[in-house]
Structure formats: C-alpha cells, structure tokens
Amino acid sequence: MPALSIALTCIALLSGCHTANLIPPALIPPNLRPPAEDNGAALKLAQKKLQDASPCCSSFADFSYQTILPWQPQKFVLGSDAMVANLNGVHSYFIAFGLPTGVKLPYRVAVKSELNGRWLRSSYLFAPTIVLLDGGFQPIGTNDVGLCEHVGWSNETTGAFGAVSITSDKARYLLVYSSAAQQSGKTYWEQSPASVTTSDSNPSLNMNPSGSFSVPHGPDGTLWVGMMDKTYAKAVDNAICKKAPPGTGVLNTLRADLPIPWINGSDADKNNSSKSSQ
Q: Which long-range contacts (CB under 8 A, 24 or more apart) does 248-257 make?
C-alpha cells in the first residue's frame, strides 16, 4: 500500500496543475479518499462543544499555577475533557504555569500548534494567546501569538511555531488560552492540499494550483509549550509566516548570494576581460 501511495503522489507531481484521470476508484486507499462530511463539520462541532461547556474560571486569580513552565517544550492536549475558562466573554481551553525563578532575562517561551485533522484541507489548529501575570495575578502583558509554518525532518520540527519573550522581572505566572481574535483567525500555510475525486466516471487526483492557503483556527488541539531550546529556536527563526514576494529567479539569487567564480565571475576575470577588449 505505501508503494501505491507513492505512485499516486508521483502522478500528481508529474501532472502539475492538470488532472490525471488514471486512478480506478477501487484502487484508491482509504487514507487518500476525501472525507465524506463537509470540510468545516469537525470545526463546527468542536466550537459548539466549547460553547456548551461550563467554565470553571473567569478571572486570572481563579487558575492554578502550580505547574512550572517546562524547561523545554512539552505536549499539552487542549479539548475533550479539559477545563474551560471564560475570559472577556470568550470560552477557551487553557493551560496555566508558574514561571521558573533564577532564570536570566530576557528569555523566550516557544509554542508549537499541531494541525487538528487527518486531511490538510479540513484541518484547523489552536492559536494561543499568552498572558503574563505579576505576583498579584495582574496582567502585565498579553500577546496573540502569531504562528508560522515550518516543515522539518521530524514531527518535532513540523507544525505552526511561535514565541514570546519574557523581559519583565515582575512576571510570575503565564496563562495560555485562545482569544476571540485568535479563534476567528487563520494561519498562512505554504503547502496546498490535494483532493481525490472518486467518481466512477472520472476518478482523478487534483492538485491546488495556487500553492498555498490558510489554515483556520479552532477551539481545541495539541499545543507544545515550554522554554525555548535550540531545536525550536531554529524552527521559529526559519518558519514561513506569509507568502514570499516574487523574486528574479533562483539563478539570480545564487549569483547575488554565493561567491562562486563560474556564476558571478571574479573581479580579476572582469578586469582581464575589460583589458583584452581594449
């Protein structure tokens, strides 16, 4: 079955923006078939479940901050049976941390949100809002964290990454939730989803010719949170946040960035060429 999946992918790549009508419906494996339900059905169901939940907390002093922020990002699942807060009239799942003491300022806190869904075109992700609090549970900073896509060589370095900086010596606690703006927003995603048409008369594998789209934010999902480490720092600093501006081509970029004589031509070669032409 993996060989068949690879073959279908090759067909899509070779066909470019066209449609390859070469796939009998019976041969399309279940994991390559599009979901029968509406693309937004799972998101709507998750949103309704969150709104129907009874909140436990409505002020920053209501949360428990006994869990210390991990020294490196750790996995947290927001949703299902997790507790719900009501902040500024918005329901949200949350995680609350105490900040470690004795850490040199400033330092960064890393976050990574994983796509929630098997199919890219019907996925969504949890977009965090981070609130820093002082010893009296008063907010000293709120940040709707911008997420940027990074696809690495492992699951650890693949996802929607973001970060916030801790600069105040008054910061004692950190709360992660998702504001109304975050829950209604989207994150740019460079990879475009593929769709499979399973019609008996015209089975095909379709590719999105635009090459990019946006992943909607949702109320739940898997979030990695913790102090920044080298792996996450590299992913955050190299993540893609928006569509790149049009350039002048790969060769011109190489000529400008790489000091390779046979691409750029050395100054000595240019001078010799100039003298010989005189």
A: none
Compute the residue count for the chain: 278
Going by C-alpha positions, the residue among 175, 206, 231 that lies closest to residue 62 is: 175
User: Chain centroid to CA 84: how far?
Assistant: 23
In 3D space, the residue among 217, 216, 161 whose CA is nearest the CA of residue 193 turns out to be 216
pLDDT digits (tens, 9 = 90+) for 147-192: 999 999 998 999 999 999 999 999 999 999 999 999 999 999 886 5
Query: What is the enclosing helix (H) or strand (E) of 108?
Result: strand 107-113
Q: Report the SS3 class of residue 199.
A: coil
Q: Which of 156, 144, 159 is nearest to 240 (CA)?
A: 159
Contacts (Cβ under 8 Å, ≥6 apart) of 12: 20, 194, 205, 207
Query: What SS3 class is residue 189?
Result: strand
* Residue 239 contacts residue 149 (beta carbons within 8 Å): yes
d(CA 233, CA 237): 6
| Tens-digit pLDDT profile for residues 23-59 | 444 454 555 555 544 558 889 999 999 999 999 999 9
Question: Which residues are CB-neighbours of 157 under 8 A, at least 6 positions away?
Answer: 150, 151, 231, 234, 235
Identify the H or E element spanning 162.
strand 159-166
Cα 60 to chain center, whole Å?
27
pTM to 2 decimals? 0.71
**How far apart, in Å, are the Cα atoms of 1 and each of 8, 9, 152, 176?**
11, 13, 25, 41
Our CA angle for 145, 117, 75, nearest 5°, is 50
Alpha-carbon torsion, ordered 180, 54, 43, 94, to 10 deg: 60
Alpha-carbon 127 to chain mean position: 9
